[in-house]
């Protein structure tokens, strides 16, 4: 039995679909809101509750040989939400998993994660990694670059920002930060591969796609793929962070958050051959993949819908 937390999130939806297609036994821990709207036609076993309910978490982990922990607040949460959901959540999960004698915990982190990081998201991801490494459980931590896909909250949000501003797109600094994008289905393949790859046990593995790209080039790629040409202007990162914080308090949900800027604060790359070395496949290229789903989408309307969405309720 494989327990998946955060199963209705960006990675979780794709992962559970693949696990079910492969005929694996899957259990998902979901709160009432997400359990009422499942994205799968033939859903897996569902345990309704949150990571902060000890009895529910113990019920969820009992009988599971692997826990894939994907619960996250990185796209919508403020720093206090990151501490509660990311750090306190994984500690509660570890406590229950040890009691239930779970074999291994697998989780996804970010390149650059460190308990001493200056940026909140990377700091809390580093603390989560530390908690997992010292848990006494066998573990696998996959540190990835920026994840993208048809329903991602990073590259799609760049496209929304471009379409929401008719003339100019503001780039943090000179857009010189180097990123290492990874397609979400390739991340799912790595997660599934780690279930059987012995050399991934008790390991922190850094992975990314087949190419590096600067943030400025990423913006130009999105413009080219979506057919929206804008002038790019350099802006101080601290000013854009302030603006993101302001809009995050004014709007139900802003297109960018301070955590969004944490991911592009510094260059973050992994060795280009790590996916093939550990999991035996070649990841997909960025622009070729974007062309399969971004062209022709109405990002202006999507931007309006996204900013009017309600922030998730706190568990």
How would you characterize the overall build of this protein?
- The chain has 315 residues and is α/β, with parallel strands linked by helices.
- It has a domain at 2-147 and 182-211 and 267-284: NAD(P)-binding Rossmann-like Domain (Rossmann fold).
- The protein has 13 helices and 13 strands.
Task: Give the helices and strands, then pairings.
Elements (H helix, E strand, L loop, with lengths): L1 E4 L4 H12 L4 E5 L1 H4 L9 E4 L5 H8 L4 E4 L9 H21 L4 E7 L9 H14 L4 E7 L2 E2 L6 H10 L3 E5 L5 E2 L2 E2 H11 L8 E5 L5 E2 H12 L4 E5 L1 H14 L7 H5 L11 H6 L6 H5 L8 H10 L7
Parallel strand pairs: 1-2, 1-4, 2-3, 4-5, 5-6, 6-11, 7-10, 8-13
Antiparallel strand pairs: 9-12
Task: Note the main attributes of this structure.
315 residues; alpha/beta; Rossmann fold; seven-stranded parallel β-sheet; two-stranded parallel sheet; 13 helices
């Amino acid at each position: 039995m494989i327990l998946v937390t955060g199963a209705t999130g960006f990675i979780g939806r794709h992962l559970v679909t693949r696990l079910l297609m492969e005929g694996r036994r899957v259990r998902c821990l979901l709160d009432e809101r997400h359990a009422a709207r499942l994205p799968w036609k033939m859903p897996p076993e569902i345990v309704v509750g949150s990571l902060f309910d000890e009895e529910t978490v113990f019920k969820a982990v009992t009988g599971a040989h692997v826990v894939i922990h994907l619960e996250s607040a990185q796209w919508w949460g403020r720093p206090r939400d990151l501490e509660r959901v990311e750090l306190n959540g994984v500690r509660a999960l570890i406590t229950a998993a040890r009691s239930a004698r779970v074999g291994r915990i697998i989780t996804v982190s970010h390149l650059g994660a460190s308990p001493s990081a200056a940026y909140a998201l990377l700091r809390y991801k580093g603390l989560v990694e530390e908690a997992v490494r010292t848990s006494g459980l066998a573990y696998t931590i996959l540190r990835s670059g920026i994840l993208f896909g048809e329903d991602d909250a990073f590259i799609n949000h760049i496209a929304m920002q471009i379409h929401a501003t008719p003339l100019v797109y503001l780039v943090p600094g000179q857009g010189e930060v180097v990123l290492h994008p990874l397609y979400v289905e390739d991340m799912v393949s790595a997660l599934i591969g780690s279930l059987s790859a012995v050399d991934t046990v008790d390991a922190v593995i850094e992975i990314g796609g087949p190419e590096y790209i600067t943030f400025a080039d990423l913006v130009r790629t999105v413009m080219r793929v979506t057919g929206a040409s804008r002038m790019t202007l350099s802006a101080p990162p601290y000013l854009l962070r302030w603006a993101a914080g302001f809009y995050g308090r004014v709007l139900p949900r802003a297109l960018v958050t301070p955590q969004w800027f944490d991911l592009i604060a510094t260059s973050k790359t992994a060795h280009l051959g790590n996916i093939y070395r550990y999991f035996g496949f070649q990841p997909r290229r960025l622009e070729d993949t974007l062309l399969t789903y971004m062209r022709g989408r109405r990002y202006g309307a999507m931007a309006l819908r996204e900013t009017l969405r309600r922030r998730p309720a706190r568990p």
